[in-house]
Amino acid sequence: MSSAPITTEAPRVCLVAITKHGAAQAARLAADLPEADICTSAKFAAVFAEASNTVRAYDGALRDEIAPLFAGYDQIIFFVSLGAVVRLIAPHLRSKDEDPGIIVVDDAGQYVIPVLSGHVGGANEWSERVADLLGAAPVLTTASDVGRTIPVDILGRHLGWKVEAPKINITRVSAHVVNGEPIAFVQEAGSPDWWTRPTPVPDNIHRFARFDDVPLDRYAALLWVTHADVTAERWDALTERLVVYRPPLDNAA
């Protein structure tokens, strides 16, 4: 029931531009993201002549670059129209656990849109970062991000926490969270720095230091950060209401 292994490596980022205005916007962003690579039409390669970033200038069609981009990067930021990006990436989609984050910036640099793998893949977070750097507006549609509440399936990922729960539990509990129902958050282990949003923890999230202190009948769901064993009887008793998080042992509270 555990999640996929957590990676702490820096994400591999590529900026993709195929128009004059898009290349200009990408060059602006590249100055603030020196670790990002650039993929551009050879026609506009000169725009990046002063950039310290690695630049790939291709002569063919952008569609021929998509497979290598998917294989080589964790976040791909397109300065290309949204419709064109959707058509380009469609044949390469596999799953939200495998696909890179796909982000689109409009030609005027006004909007930053996470198109794919926004939540699990990190494109929402990167869209907010890119928007801040460009002075643009991020366009988010993921419920937990829009509502500034707990992202049940990836909570604590930046701390190395692993999720332990059946998928149906994660689905049901996520719905309870975004719908504003009363949620018990029990933290018996791990770092206290799990809340990373600039807004306060929502009022429907009630914190407890011990599982035994929770009046279970008052809460729609429970998020439990612990190193304790969870018995089959407890999972059964809290059918589809419990999600457990396992922090690294050296982060025990």
TrEMBL record:
InterPro entries, alphabetized: CbiG_hydrolase, CbiG_mid, CbiG_N, GbiG_N_sf
Pfam families: CbiG_mid, CbiG_N
Record domain Cobalamin synthesis G N-terminal: where: 67-145
Superkingdom as given in the UniProt entry: Bacteria
Domain Cobalamin biosynthesis central region, first and last residues per copy: 151-247
Record protein name field: Cobalamin biosynthesis protein CbiG
